[in-house]
């Protein structure tokens, strides 16, 4: 049976309602890694990057599963405005799913990703990378 390691936190904060997530993060031990899993669009990435605890260095890492690459051609949606790539960290811009979305001026809702066969395996590997 699959389970996420108990010391890994994956956050989805709908919209800009991040106060509860921030309060929760501030109560966690500083050695617990955490990631934001939201829509892969400018607003979703901004939300993920805006959540931060009070302790220095408790910044989020938006998590874009590579397994979502199978959804790009069929589930991505047109973006109304160009991607504001200057706002995002260079390491985030290296994600192949995000690169494709930027190149094609599209975005992807995160809900379909949780049903992908590779999603849980990738999530587990993400957790293992911090062991």
Question: Could you please describe the fold and organization of this structure?
Answer:
The protein has 131 residues and is an alpha/beta fold. The protein is built from six helices and five strands, in the order βαβαβαβααβα. It has helices at 19-26, 42-50, 72-75, 90-93, 96-104, 117-128; strands spanning 9-11, 34-36, 61-62, 77-78, 106-107. Strands 1-2-3 form a three-stranded parallel beta sheet, with helices on one face. The protein has a two-stranded antiparallel ribbon with strand order 4-5.
Shape: globular
How many angstroms separate the termini? 19 Å
Secondary-structure element string: EHEHEHEHHEH
Radius of gyration: 15 Å
Across the major sheet, the strand order is 1-2-3
Percent of residues in helices comes to 25-40%
What does the main sheet amount to? Answer: 3 strands, parallel
What is the strand tally? 5
Supply the number of helical segments.
6
Content of β-strand: 5-15%
Oligomer: single chain
- Classification by helices and strands: alpha/beta
Which ranges are low-confidence, i.e. pLDDT below 50, for 5 or more consecutive residues?
none
Mean pLDDT: 83
């Amino acid at each position: 049976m699959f389970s996420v390691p108990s010391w890994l936190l994956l956050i989805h904060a709908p919209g800009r309602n991040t106060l509860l997530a921030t309060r929760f993060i501030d109560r966690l031990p500083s050695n617990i890694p955490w990631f934001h899993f939201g829509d892969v669009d400018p607003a979703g990435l901004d939300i993920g990057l805006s959540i931060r605890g009070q302790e220095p260095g408790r910044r989020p890492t938006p998590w874009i599963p590579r397994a979502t690459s199978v959804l790009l051609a069929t589930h991505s949606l047109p973006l109304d405005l160009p991607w504001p790539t200057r706002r995002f960290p260079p390491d985030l811009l290296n994600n192949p799913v995000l690169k494709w979305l930027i190149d094609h001026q599209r975005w992807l809702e995160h809900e379909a990703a949780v049903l992908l066969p590779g999603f849980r395996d990738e999530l587990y590997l993400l957790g293992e990378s911090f062991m």
